[in-house]
């Protein structure tokens, strides 16, 4: 279903990632950014509230019909659980209690992990640090799809399935690319998570357990919030590997959309990344211009590599996607690193059901 992509390989570069050099340059010009490198005092209270919210949800769905269990798992639980994975991202950077209390952060990460249903926090911490140190490095950075994924998921329909199955690839990819010895904290994380799942089953019932697990799988797969997985590092502009999103979904994702800023300054918590953005003025970073209600698409006819600060106002206007879905589908089919991001899913599904002339001429 859908034609194959024209690309047959990844984009290979043989230079160091740019963020370390840019960090030095920015700090030399704006040393006041160091004042933003401090723990987020509100983070732990937000996470505790999120855990309690899901506990209330477990209670409320326990007697619902299955169709409503799945509906609320996608409409509500998936948003909370996806947001919780990004809270765990913040914890992995020690933003809860600071770098001098690393073990406190690891224990709190296990607590935040509980409503997700799958042991995740400790392993994520270990691999995510590699992602920052060796961004895009073959065989080390497990955020990059495998050769098999790039080879097999090469049509519109297969890419659609890849998006649905993304949580599984994200979970199992490290075992094939860069397996690491199991640590004692990972064992504790696994035991505590299984124990919590059993408690949910016996206290609330099977529907609450299914709600919890479905919320995680759906929220990390075919879900608008999951667009950041692809929007962050898939190469839309040649030579640029990291992109930022400044739209409203940052309110649910602890500002993970400020991704250039995050990689430039991984010691700045998400709460302070907008402040970092207002301080800096770095040239040579790609920006998708938005001078009208129609956001300019990142394809060969509309990309403009402008020397301004960070990518700005990216992909936040849902109305734009409904108007431009044919151009988006053309981009999807022409490049392995296809555009699946905030607000795209609805218009993309329409095109799958009713092929357009744009599909016929690709």
Automatic annotation (TrEMBL):
Name of protein: Sphingolipid delta(4)-desaturase DES1
Pfam families linked to this entry: FA_desaturase, Lipid_DES
Subcellular location: Endoplasmic reticulum membrane
Role: Has sphingolipid-delta-4-desaturase activity. Converts D-erythro-sphinganine to D-erythro-sphingosine (E-sphing-4-enine). Catalyzes the equilibrium isomerization of retinols.
Broadest EC class assigned to this enzyme: oxidoreductase
A GO molecular function held by the record: sphingolipid delta-4 desaturase activity
Catalytic activity: all-trans-retinol = 9-cis-retinol; an N-acylsphinganine + 2 Fe(II)-[cytochrome b5] + O2 + 2 H(+) = an N-acylsphing-4-enine + 2 Fe(III)-[cytochrome b5] + 2 H2O; 11-cis-retinol = 9-cis-retinol; all-trans-retinol = 11-cis-retinol
Gene responsible for this protein: Degs1
InterPro entries attached to this UniProt entry: DES1/DES2, FA_desaturase_dom, Sphingolipid_d4-desaturase_N
